[in-house]
Give the backbone structure.
Amino acid sequence: MIAVLGAMGHRTVLSAPPRRVVSLVPSETEAWVALGGLASLVGRTDYCVTPASVAAVTSVGGTKDARLDDIVALAPDLVLCNQEENTEAVVRGLARAGVAYHLSFPKTVRDAVGLVDDLARLQGLDPAAVDECITLRAAVAEAEARRGDRAPLRVFCPIWMDPLMTVHGDTFISDMLDLCGGYNVFSDRPRRYPLAADRGLAAPWDALRVAGRDTRYPRVTLDELVAAAPELVLLPDEPHPFSEADAAVFRGLDLAAARDGRVLRVPGRHLSWYSTAMAESIAAVTGWIDQARR
């Protein structure tokens, strides 16, 4: 019997390692295959493109518009889902169809390490004996030990350009920055409702009215950004593919990051993917931050 606990207290129980798996989460597809699960992967999303070997696996649509009928038709023993990347309708549909699923929602790097361990367990493996899991835990422990040796660098990392959106401290991206020596300059800035309030044009709703809404992705203004005074600006290529034209906007602002040539376009996967490749991501993000200190 295999049992793991996912997001929202959902318990995934399997009688044996699954022989037919559908993954609706690109980073989990990558991790599942890295842990040895390619032979069991029978379905993926259009955005599950790494490693290259998954190209031959049947697609069931996008992360937000996965086709429930196509998933069920593949007769999976397990579907890998994420509370944020996938829709509630698909997850509820799987439950109604009696299809076993694992629901993830890592908000910290340590959460993500636990998720990778769970994916190993679902394959019938002991994480303590899996090289990928051992390497990942060691990389996180090393980064945590280094974190206390230096003052954090002030970092701005947007996720969308128009409207300009970024991340609150209660997100995986923010925790990755913190682990690697950065300080998310909007870590304490929640998303305000209604939209006009988030843009500073109206009074925000009270906590009772906002209850249940996701406040982790605020819309911010360029004036707020200047006031936040980041020393480094990281422009990822996903979910919004920040361009050179976008970078020019930030380079034209009165920011230390702009004056010192520290507005960088970077691979977004290193900031937001929670897979077995996080050791590589920690090294990359730490490198960007350390380079900006010089």
The mean pLDDT is 95.
